[in-house]
Amino acid sequence: MKEKLEQIKADALSKIENSDTLEKLNEIRVNFLGKKGELTAVLKSMKDVAPEERPKVGQMVNETREEIEKVLEKHISQMEKALREAKMKTEVIDVTLPAKKNNVGHRHPNTIALEEVERIFIGMGYEVVEGPEVEKDYYNFEALNIPKDHPARDEQDTFYITEDIVLRTQTSPVQVREMEKGKLPIRMIAPGRVFRSDEVDATHSPSFHQIEGLVIDKNITFADLKGTLAEFARELFGEETKVKFRPHHFPFTEPSAEMDVTCFKCGGSGCRFCKGSGWIEILGCGMVHPNVLNMSGIDPEEYSGFAFGVGLERIALLKYEIDDMRLLYENDIRFLKQF
Length: 339
Ligand code: DAH
What we know:
Number of strands: 9
Bound molecules: 3,4-dihydroxyphenylalanine
Structural class: alpha+beta
Strand order of the largest sheet: 1-4-5-9-8-7-6
Helix content: 40-55%
CATH superfamily of the largest domain: Bira Bifunctional Protein, Domain 2
C-alpha cells in the first residue's frame, strides 16, 4: 500500500511539474484528488486492509493528499502570477499617446435663434406653449376666420391627412387652443414646426418653423402691439433698430400689418443685404379679429388682443447672414459649427 501511495505521489508531482497551463493543473487535481480520483480509489480499497492497519493507511493517504495539494496550489498561484504579469505587460497604457478627440455637438442656428426669441418674450412676462403639428382643419383654418372656400387657403398649400385633419400650415391654431381654455388674460408665444406643400429652394421648404404670439386682456390696443414688437426688434437686432408697420391682410386679425425693421447691416441706408431698400420684412401681426375671439368663447366687447407670427428660419438666416435656407437642413457639422 505504501509503495502504491509513493507511486501515486511521484506520478502526480511529475505531472504537476510538467504542466504549463491552469487547465492542466486543474485536470490533475480532479484525476488525483477528486471524487473519482486515484487517492479516493485507495480509500475505497480499505476494506481489503486488515482492520488494525486501517488508521495508519488512512493517515498515509491523508499525508499524500496534503503533499500533492500543497505542490499543486503552489504551482497554480505561481502560474496565475505569471499570467497576470504577462497581461500587465501587454496592457500597458502609454500616457504620451495623443488623446481621442471628443466631438461635442453644437446648437443649431434655429435653436439659438429660438432661445433668443424665447428669452426676450419670457422677459416680458410671456408663457411658452406648444400645440400639435397634426392639427384639425377647424383649428388651422375655420376658427381663425378662414372658412372652407376662403382664398387664403390657396396661399398656404396644405398637406391634408384627411378632409378634417391637416399638417398645420401655421402656428396660429395654438392661439385658438389657448383661448378656448378660457383662462384670461393671455400672454403667450408658441414656437413650432409647420408644413406647406412647397418646392425646396433657397427660401422655401415644405417644413419650417414659426413663432406665434398672442396677448389677450382688457384694453389692449394697437399701441401695445407696436410697443411690444418694437421692443422685440430692438432686443433681437440691436438698440438702434427702427420698425415700420405696413397695412396688410390676415383673415384672423383686423387691422393687420406687416412689420419691417431697419436693415441691421447698413442701418437703413440701403445695401445688398436689404436689396437697397434699407428695410427688412420680419413678421405679420394685427389685432385679433372679433370673429376669432367670439368663436373661442371670448367676448370682444370686454376683451381685445393682438397677435403676431414670425418665421424662425427667417430670423436665423438674417441674424447669421445665411443666404440659403437649405443649409439649415443639411446638418453639415462644418456649417453648423460656425454659429
Ligand atoms: N399665420 C401667419 C402666416 O403663417 C402669420 C401671422 C400673421 C400670425 C399675423 C399671426 C398674425 O398671429 O397676427 O403667414
